[in-house]
Amino acid sequence: MSYENVIVHIDAKSPIAEAYRVLRTNIQYSNIDKQLKTIVITSSGPMEGKTTTVINLASTFAYADSKTLLIDSDLRRPKIHDFFMLANE
């Protein structure tokens, strides 16, 4: 895994990248009365796409000039640091 797997970065005009931008927009307008500050992505089992979804979704928020902090809270198999080629410290 590497930074190249972030589809909104490597192919910003692809239909998949557009789907992540639509998801971002839907999340932003889901609570129009006040600004959303926290988003949690979870699922019931492994290998369901949580890491891919959260990395691309966070990237779309960052590209839209939103302050974005991505926290990998998977204590068993953290992977987000691999995508961004960072040490897990």
Descriptive account of the structure:
This protein has 89 residues and is an all-alpha fold. Helix content is 40%, strand content 0%. It has four helices and no strands. Helix 2 crosses helix 3. The radius of gyration is 13 Å and the shape is globular. The two termini are 18 Å apart.
SSE inventory with pairings:
Elements: H1 7-10, H2 15-28, H3 50-63, H4 80-83
Helix pairs in contact: 2-3
Distance between the termini: 18 Å
Class from secondary-structure proportions: mainly alpha
Q: Main sheet, how many strands, which sense, barrel?
A: none
**Low-confidence residue ranges:** none
Radius of gyration: 13 Å
Whole-number average pLDDT?
Answer: 88
Overall outline: globular
Helix fraction by DSSP (H/I, runs of at least 4): 40-55%
Q: Beta-strand level of the residues, as a percent range?
A: under 5%
Number of helices: 4
Secondary structure tally: strands: 0
